[in-house]
Design brief:
The protein is mostly beta strands. The protein has no helices and 13 strands.
């Protein structure tokens, strides 16, 4: 489940008939590369100006609207910068943010399907690189798991979760997310099935305010 929710809940009331405590999995398949996520993706850049293959390795200055596609040469979940009209391009950057060491601190806009950590590596080792930028990517295809209720991307209001706080497609059941709050007490009154989470560095919320969908 994604735990990098882009929604910061506000105090809008109290009340929760039952509270569950869940140790959330801080991983989301298909998200940050070589950071602390379970299945990771990335665009890697090197600190050197060239590599043994002769490919230019000067760090790319990423900007909104840039595109990328899979690159399995260094990682099975890796990404590379591509022209948007390249048939291999699969995502476009909705937003480019600073790099984050803690995955929970990443907050991308609504509609983000993939979160890619751009890392600057030293000595050509992508796994030892330092996060320099974070790309909030939207699929170029019509498939958008990051949309509310679709079961992917970051956890946002309108998504659904199972009993272990794992994000699931609302069509398959689960509890609907009404808000993401720092405490259960901040959940809205209609949240009758809140989930209390163990703290995670950088994550802006520690409670998922839910109701049975």
């Amino acid at each position: 489940m994604s735990v990098h929710g882009s929604t910061r809940a506000r105090s809008i009331g109290t009340g929760a008939a039952r509270t569950r405590s869940v140790l959330m999995d801080c991983a989301k398949a298909g998200l940050l590369f070589a950071l602390v996520l379970g299945a990771t993706t990335a665009c890697d850049t090197s600190s050197s100006s060239s590599s043994s293959s002769g490919v230019d390795r000067k760090p790319k200055e990423w900007k909104t609207g840039d595109c990328a596609g899979p690159d399995t040469s260094k990682s099975k979940d890796g990404y590379q910068a591509l022209d948007c009209d390249d048939p291999k391009a699969t995502i476009k950057a909705l937003q480019v943010k600073d790099g984050e060491i803690f995955a929970g601190a990443v907050e991308c806009p609504a509609g983000t399907d993939e979160i890619i950590s751009v890392k600057v590596s030293f000595g050509g080792d992508a796994g030892a690189g330092l996060p320099s930028k974070t790309i909030c990517g939207r699929n170029l295809s019509g498939e958008h798991p990051g949309d509310a209720g679709m079961g992917g991307g970051q956890l946002v209001v309108g998504d659904c979760v199972d009993d272990q706080a794992k994000e699931v497609a609302c069509a398959s059941g689960g509890s609907k997310v009404l808000a993401l709050a720092k405490t259960v007490e901040e959940c809205p009154a209609e949240s009758d099935d809140p989930i209390k989470l163990f703290p995670s560095p950088g994550r802006p919320y520690d409670a998922i305010c839910t109701t049975k969908a």
